């Protein structure tokens, strides 16, 4: 993962030491991800060795899968970007994340992962989040972002998976959609995703 500066690709050294969770500092450019699962009450060890209950977001970005420790601020931003407060309906939806150097941990600004927007957004929106012990809310601006481009092989593989998933519930609808969009794989993927979301309440990736 890298960004371009003067024609050269740069990668942060932390990317040489991957761990269980995505490190924000390695996000040298915005990344659009698809949410696979939201896992609550995950017991993780903090810097002082104590166990803390955290929320973990599971995702894939078109080439690999990963996990992010998902704090309340990012949950509020995700709900706003997707216009959906029910986190069980975030599954299969896309958001764009980036590294925000202004994120503070205690009194120190160390930077962290923040939601930047979503391909589902039509217009920019502003979200104000009230934080404990702060007089004024922190304001974030969420923007419409582009969907990540997939290779033809990735689109075909995803369409096969979605077709099989929809066929478990409505084989005739799956067949009809495949016939209607046989010449446009991307339209087929969008149609299958929406059909599964309507059938399962927003869970095309489950």
TrEMBL record:
Superkingdom, taxonomy of origin: Bacteria
Full protein name: Uncharacterized protein
């Amino acid at each position: 993962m890298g960004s371009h500066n003067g024609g050269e690709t740069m990668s942060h050294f932390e990317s040489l030491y991957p761990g269980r969770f995505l490190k924000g500092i390695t996000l040298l450019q915005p990344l659009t991800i698809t949410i696979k699962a939201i896992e609550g009450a995950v017991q993780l060890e903090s810097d002082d060795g104590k166990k803390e209950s955290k929320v973990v977001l599971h995702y894939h970005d078109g080439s690999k899968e990963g996990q992010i420790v998902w704090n309340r601020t990012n949950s509020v931003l995700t709900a706003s970007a997707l216009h959906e407060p029910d986190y069980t309906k975030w599954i299969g939806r896309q958001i764009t994340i980036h590294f925000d150097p202004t994120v503070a941990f205690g009194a120190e600004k160390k930077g962290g992962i923040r939601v930047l927007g979503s391909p589902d957004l039509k217009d920019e929106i502003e979200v104000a989040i009230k934080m404990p012990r702060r007089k004024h809310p922190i304001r974030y601006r969420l923007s419409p972002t582009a969907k990540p481009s997939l290779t033809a092989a990735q689109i075909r593989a995803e369409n096969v998976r979605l077709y099989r998933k929809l066929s478990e519930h409505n084989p005739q609808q799956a067949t009809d959609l495949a016939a209607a969009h046989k010449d446009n794989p991307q339209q087929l993927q969008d149609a299958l995703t929406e059909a599964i979301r309507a059938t399962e309440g927003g869970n095309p990736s489950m």
